[in-house]
Amino acid sequence: MIRVEDVHMHFGGIRAVNGATLEIAKGSITGLIGPNGAGKTTLFNCIAGHYAPTSGKIFLDGEEITGLAPHELFHKGLLRTFQIAHEFATLTVRENLMMVPGEQMGERLWNTFFHRKAIAEEEAGVRARADEVIDFLTLNRVADELAGNLSGGQKKLLELGRTMMVDAKIVFLDEVGAGVNRTLLKTIADAIRRLNQERGYTFCMIEHDMDFIGDLCDPVIVMAEGTVLTQGHVDEVKNNEQVIEAYLGTGMKQRPNRAKAGA
């Protein structure tokens, strides 16, 4: 579904992404991991249109999307969430969801005067969809609460819910589990799994919680120093010497051998 070919993203002399090449299969939940500074979020931003890469190409379903703006990718079904939730704090949970679908009739002044009935019918449909999302994510108790008053985990659920208000093909999740308590983390994991299995969503997620990654993701792609180091099943990745070195450093990798030799 997504193909990234030799993508580079440079900021002056800093090569945040340095020749990354990868593929995300349709219908998968793909994990993207790596040490801090590996280029994961920068690559997300290139794919999602927040940065135009310095060089390289990005494809969605065979169509080149390199450099397209986020709103153009939104209409193609490519969405992303952020590590820090971007809710409308002074709107309710339901209102946040109802804001998502684009080009609603009520957004045009002319229609507010001459097409009130059509606007009301469309709004009723959007509201019904929002209520369905609220029920799916078990947010009923806070449906009419201001989004700014939600806990961190509830805000992450709301971000996930906003992707459900449109016909998403692929969703990029940036540390959806960061700062979330274990109970809500399970709710988020269950929602991601159900969206994948029941509604055909494709996900790619950056995450540092390896238990969370292991529970949801296959395959797992590892980045280091701006490029793809390896990929495979989570157990293969965790036992890969290159991955261990990238996370812990050569010294940490060799320490058990030195201790054994001195025994």
UniProtKB/TrEMBL annotation:
Protein name from the UniProt record: Amino acid/amide ABC transporter ATP-binding protein 1, HAAT family
Record GO terms (molecular function): ATP binding; ATP hydrolysis activity
GO cellular component: plasma membrane
SUPFAM superfamilies: P-loop containing nucleoside triphosphate hydrolases
Originating species: Saliniramus fredricksonii
Gene: livG-4
Family listed: Belongs to the ABC transporter superfamily.
Matches recorded under InterPro entries: AAA+_ATPase (IPR003593), ABC_AA/LPS_Transport (IPR051120), ABC_transporter-like_ATP-bd (IPR003439), ABC_transporter-like_CS (IPR017871), BCA_ABC_TP_C (IPR032823), P-loop_NTPase (IPR027417)
CDD domains xref list: ABC_Mj1267_LivG_branched
A Pfam family hit: ABC_tran
Leader sequence segment: none
Alphabetized UniProt keyword annotations: ATP-binding, Nucleotide-binding, Transport
SMART domains: AAA
Transport in keyword set: yes
Start and end residues of each ABC transporter domain: 2-250
PROSITE patterns linked to this entry: ABC_TRANSPORTER_1 (PS00211), ABC_TRANSPORTER_2 (PS50893)
